[in-house]
Amino acid sequence: MTDEQAAGVAADAPGSTATPLVADQHAPAPGPAGGAAPTFPAVTSAAADPGRWGRVDDDGTVWLRTGDGERAVGSWQAGDAQEGLAHFALRFDDLRTEVDLLVRRLTGGRGDARSTLRSATTLRERLAEAAVVGDVVGLGARLDAVVTAAEAAEEAERAARAGARDDAVARKEALIAEAEALAEETTRWKHAGDRFQAMIEEWKAVKGVDRKTDDALWKRFSRARETFARRRGAHFAELDRARTAAKARKEELVAEAEGLVESTDWGPTAGRYKELMADWKAAGRTSKDADDALWARFRGAQDTFFARRSEAFSARDAEFADNARAKEELLAEAGRIDLGDVDAARAALRDVQERWDAIGKVPRERVREFAGRLKEVEDRVRAAVDRRWQAVDPETEARVGQFRSRVEQYEAQAAKAYAAGDHRRAQEAERQAAQWREWLAAAEAAR
């Protein structure tokens, strides 16, 4: 038994408060066009009162009562007579549930009528010999109504298929009308070409038209496509003069590009090549062969210039790399400055700073790194100077409070800048906080 069938049986059980499956048993099913909707006779659940519909002999034979008398439907040896009668009543209710589901399928428009008709016919044939106890006569009448309604619904479906064929023809005729309008009127060539392609896919998706009718409709559609193709061809023939002008303009651009190849004015020349590229795109297209040949010359000149610029930049990068190595050595030397003699340390730092500036530039990606590392050296020397000053300052405690206040101030600025998304200001505030924190530590150590 399916879950849905089991729910129907449970709903009919004594004491159940659920709505029985047959609550809609008199609901009309969709009838044929112009006809009255069919109704389905009600059938009482056998499980509610099995003794009304049958009995069990002392030898266990189970009898079904009908208007024509009794007939044996089975044997029960597993328990008392009431249990056996209830068992066969439940089997009847299972059949009743199957019929109710067919009624719902018809009234709810679920499934196809042909399948419902087959199922109802099979159930009606089984009913005459079914081993059940219940209102078999009433269930047979309900099945007769189902068969009648399913036959009517099947006829309606056949009519619907015929209507669908008419709708399919109408959709293809609408595509033909659109194609004929585009073929005669449009000047949006790319859009129309794309639309014709899409209409072909739409045409293929429309099913249900007979072969003869479909062939005739396709001929009309094809004629519209051919008309459009002829008009588009004539239009592009008129563009030949524009292609000739585009060729002359591109030859001018090629000549200028080739004249800039040897320039060493890297920035302005690179900007001019960018402008020439924009002019090239605006000039339009000429014939494919001519356009390809001109483009090869234009691109060749451009590539030559940028290759020369790349070589020059590579030489500069090599110089910057040498400068970076020199500054690495200078940083190593600065790291060995003796902070025990503050005056000597300051003098050594000034010497490092002068030689640092004389070395020159380093690669761009390392500028911040080197600046930070030099600052660390400067900060260490400054901290040594500050420690000496703190050692002879009688107001050390006041300075500790001042330094701590400044640390807190810069930390608050950093937090506020991060919250505002200003990472540059936040990082600068963090650097200031770190410097004051170092001075604070020195001041506290000197107390």
Count of helical segments?
A: 13
Radius of gyration: 49 Å
Oligomeric nature of the chains: single chain
Gross morphology is flat
Mean model confidence by pLDDT: 82
> How would a textbook summarize the main sheet?
3 strands, antiparallel
Strand residue content: under 5%
Give the termini distance in whole angstroms.
Answer: 92 Å
Specify the structural class: mainly alpha
Strand-and-helix sequence, N→C?
A: HEEEHHHHHHHHHHHH
Uncertain ranges: 1-30
The strand count comes to: 3
**How much helical structure, as a percent, in the residues?**
over 70%
- Please list the strands of the largest sheet in the order they lie side by side: 1-2-3
Write the layout of secondary structure elements.
Elements: H1 3-12, E1 54-56, E2 61-66, E3 69-75, H2 81-108, H3 113-127, H4 136-185, H5 189-205, H6 211-238, H7 240-259, H8 266-282, H9 288-335, H10 342-359, H11 367-392, H12 396-419, H13 423-445
Antiparallel strand pairs: 1-2, 2-3
Helix pairs in contact: 1-2, 2-3, 2-4, 3-4, 4-5, 4-6, 7-8, 7-9, 9-10, 9-11, 10-11, 11-13, 12-13
